Amino acid sequence: MKRVYAREEYCVGCRLCEIHCIVAHSNYPDNIVKAFKKQKPRPLPRVTVEEKGEVSFALQCRHCEEAPCTKACITGAMQKDPVTGVVTNEEERCVGCWTCILVCPHGAIRRDESGKKVASKCDLCSGIDDLPACVKNCPNEALVYEEREEQVKAG
Question: Which end of the chain is more exposed for a tag (fewer CB within 10 A), N or C?
Fold first, then answer.
């Protein structure tokens, strides 16, 4: 399956991936100003830029082959699509127990405490666009969306 891969040698830590992720998942996906000024609370970015010294890269869900978050979820809110392989969180079913956060080997799931207290994670912009917003708007092509031979294993 296609996944988002970070190329840290090209990442300058501008955080545009985070900004465009917020906009894509807001009530105003085509208007960055409205997404930031009018929507309260604002959605969390589902991608996070990690930085240490000169190195930076975007961190998001790897959509693992054997996704431990789906096995740990007590309500079945965290699911892996059997056709696409995309791991999603059904927010209406999520009770905010955070077991998915505890078992995620990549630290890619965050707590969204702005509303109902649900888990927040990358959904590859499924149903929003053909290309994830973080990849589409990265000025340095530090994020790529492609299929690779390697499988992403948990842990």
Answer: C
